[in-house]
Amino acid sequence: MTSAPVVVIGASFGGVNALLELAAALPPDFPAIVGVVLHVGSRASILPQLLSRRGPHPAVHPKDGEPPRPGVLYVAPPDHHLLLTPQAVRLNRGPRENYARPAIDPLFRSAALGWRERAIGVILTGDLDDGTAGLAAIKRCGGMAVVQDPQEAVGPSMPASALAHVQVDHCVRLAQLAPLLAKLVGQPARSPATVPQDLQREQALFEGNDPMDQLAHLGEPSLLTCPDCGGGLVELKGSQPLRYRCHTGHGFTARSLEAAQQEQADHALWSSLRSLQERRLLLLRLATVAEATGDVAQAQAGRRQAERLREQAEQLSRMIESADA
């Protein structure tokens, strides 16, 4: 088990350049374990190679179960959550959080539970609000919260959300971040904190341990359904920002849930438009066949129905266009 402190960093839109600048500025003797999540989805990523070339510390996509080492930047690989414990680095293809895998909140939550007052969370540039709940978890366990100044961030939404919902210890420009982190990890740890039971339950739910029982203690059923699996969503009690979870472990802030619902609605509307257009084409083809066989009445009925479908498709197309405006 390591006794080194941990620094966990989350970034999204604009995050590659921010991470490269931070990695280049970290001192060679930086004594902390570092975990990094960039929203890359399932796409191939060469972020570890880029970070290793830019700074004095090696960056890797870790192997599941390897012991964490100070001075190494552990980067979440594509389509895997990164979890850190003092005993081991864990990779997890569990449920998506905030419609993302890798997501920032699971990494931050694992650091909060494993390191408590020796954890430092850092939110960099990005859209929406992944990482805010995880940063709040670090604070509740006695750790420190650091946020990039939203005014200089390419994506100001993530750092702005953290500032709005978390008692942040430091809000700094990117150029000030590495010296600040070097100072913070060298300071004596704060007084030990007690881990809140709801965080332990939420992590157990995420890891699939007795999910129905855990969820019953975490919140109240809502009228909403999970965009990932269709299960009922529970609204978590006392969460800032407002969050939801289903019994399979998918988790959403209200903002990420709304974005997921918008994506689903958009997909459904375009699918409906395609269905109307294809049915119209089939009816016109059937009308042509009916004409060829002398069934004029059937051909006329098919063409009238096809015309109604054309009008419906045009109305739906206009509705989609107005919704996107």
Structure description:
The structure is a single chain. Helix 4 links the parallel strand 7 and strand 8. The mean pLDDT is 95. This protein has helices spanning 15-25, 47-54, 104-115, 132-140, 157-165, 174-185, 197-206, 211-218, 254-292, 296-324; strands at 6-11, 33-38, 59-60, 73-75, 81-84, 89-92, 119-123, 144-148, 170-172, 219-225, 232-236, 243-246, 251-253. The protein has 325 residues and is α/β, with parallel strands linked by helices. It has ten helices and 13 strands. It has three domains: 6-185, Methylesterase CheB, C-terminal domain (Rossmann fold, 3-Layer(aba) Sandwich); 197-249, no CATH class; 264-324. The protein has a seven-stranded parallel β-sheet, with helices on both faces. The radius of gyration is 25 Å and the shape is elongated. Helix 1 packs across helix 6, helix 3 (104-115) packs parallel to helix 4 (132-140) and helix 3 (104-115) crosses helix 7. Residues 1-188 form the CheB-type methylesterase domain. Residues 296-323 form a coiled coil.
Model regions low in confidence, pLDDT < 50 over at least 5 residues: none
Question: Kindly, what is the distance between the CA atoms of the first and last residues, rounded to a whole number of angstroms?
Answer: 54 Å
Domains (count):
3
**C-alpha geometry:** elongated
Secondary structure tally, helices: 10
CATH class of the largest domain: Alpha Beta
Strand order across the biggest sheet? 3-4-2-1-7-8-9
The CATH architecture term of the largest domain is: 3-Layer(aba) Sandwich
Profile the largest sheet: 7 strands, parallel
What is the number of beta strands? 13
- Structural class by sheet pairing and helices: alpha/beta
Query: SSE string, helix = H, strand = E?
Result: EHEHEEEEHEHEHEHHHEEEEHH
Mean pLDDT: 95
What share of residues are in beta strands?
15-25%
Q: What is the CATH topology of the largest domain?
A: Rossmann fold
